[in-house]
Amino acid sequence: MANVGGFFKNVMSEMRKVSWPKRKELTRYTIVVLATVVLMAVFFAIVDLGISELFRWYLEL
Questions:
Q1: Are 21 and 29 in contact (CB under 8 A)?
Q2: pLDDT of 3-33, one tens digit each?
Q3: pLDDT at 1 over 80
C-alpha cells in the first residue's frame, strides 16, 4: 500500500508541472477537432454512398 500512496504523490507532483492551455487555445483546439470530425464523417458518408451505388449497379447487370 505504501507503493500506491507514493504513486499518487508522484502523480500530483507531475500534474503541478503540466502547462494547461488557456481558454482561447482550448476553444481553437476544440473547433479544429469538431471540424475534422465533421469533414471525416462527410467524406466517409460520400465514400459509403459511392460504394453502395457501385454494388447496386453491379447487381442490376
A1: yes
A2: 898 999 999 999 999 999 999 999 999 999 9
A3: no
Q: What is the pLDDT of residue 2?
A: 67
H runs (alpha helix) in the chain:
2-17, 23-60
Instruction: Please give the C-alpha separations between residue 60 and each of 16, 38, 52, in angstroms, as whole numbers.
Output: 64, 33, 12
pTM higher than 0.85: no
Residues in the chain: 61
| C-alpha count within 13 angstroms, C-beta hemisphere, residue 12 | 6
Nearby residues of 43 by Cβ (< 8 Å), 6 or more positions away = none
**Alpha carbon distance 43, 61 (integer Å):** 28
CA distance 47 to 41: 10
